[in-house]
């Protein structure tokens, strides 16, 4: 034996296994989200009739699980396998994909600030479109009920918005028992605490969301900054690992 030790560039084990461990969590979370989404679609019969995806007039909350789960699965897989196998292609893909997501988030934030009125109009349209489809999907119904209960609101800008729903509208031709009414989630939980004449929330969800955003602006901003820093940190670590791997290969 010569007794000499290799003093060339080396791959950092700390960075390698940190990226691996962190992305294993994301990978399994992505699988869990995808599983929940597919299970929900199976319960609603969507998987046996794919064309029914377009039948719902409003927003299907299951899409959130599938999209978020899919992104987490792809990122987790690329980061996990890329770090473990020292695969520079997967690590570069991980960095670029994470960078694209960061850029889209930044762009969305700037556009939301610049075009506040347009965003408000789109939110109003989105909520009313889902009010029309309230009874069409149980997941959408639960999401709307949760929103109205949490923000103590009713409709997009008021209870009158529920006239858009065929079960609650006040037209003479409506034979529904819920005619001229609103969902239970619009009802105040304890009318004795407020004016005896007020039994439903009178404020719309759009202004209530704006108020909640203003009251919690520091927390919301902190969360977004934290997510952005994590993304930048992940990109830097992945690029650092790629540089180490390429330096080691170049020294062979």
From TrEMBL:
<keyword id="KW-0812">Transmembrane</keyword>
<dbReference type="InterPro" id="IPR018503">
    <property type="entry name" value="Tetraspanin_CS"/>
</dbReference>
<dbReference type="InterPro" id="IPR018499">
    <property type="entry name" value="Tetraspanin/Peripherin"/>
</dbReference>
<protein>
    <recommendedName>
        <fullName>Tetraspanin</fullName>
    </recommendedName>
</protein>
<dbReference type="InterPro" id="IPR000301">
    <property type="entry name" value="Tetraspanin_animals"/>
</dbReference>
<comment type="similarity">
    <text>Belongs to the tetraspanin (TM4SF) family.</text>
</comment>
<keyword id="KW-1133">Transmembrane helix</keyword>
<feature type="transmembrane region" description="Helical">
    <location>
        <begin position="20"/>
        <end position="41"/>
    </location>
</feature>
<keyword id="KW-1015">Disulfide bond</keyword>
<dbReference type="Pfam" id="PF00335">
    <property type="entry name" value="Tetraspanin"/>
</dbReference>
<keyword id="KW-0472">Membrane</keyword>
<feature type="transmembrane region" description="Helical">
    <location>
        <begin position="61"/>
        <end position="84"/>
    </location>
</feature>
<feature type="transmembrane region" description="Helical">
    <location>
        <begin position="96"/>
        <end position="115"/>
    </location>
</feature>
<feature type="transmembrane region" description="Helical">
    <location>
        <begin position="219"/>
        <end position="242"/>
    </location>
</feature>
<dbReference type="GO" id="GO:0005886">
    <property type="term" value="C:plasma membrane"/>
</dbReference>
<dbReference type="InterPro" id="IPR008952">
    <property type="entry name" value="Tetraspanin_EC2_sf"/>
</dbReference>
<feature type="disulfide bond">
    <location>
        <begin position="154"/>
        <end position="170"/>
    </location>
</feature>
<feature type="disulfide bond">
    <location>
        <begin position="153"/>
        <end position="186"/>
    </location>
</feature>
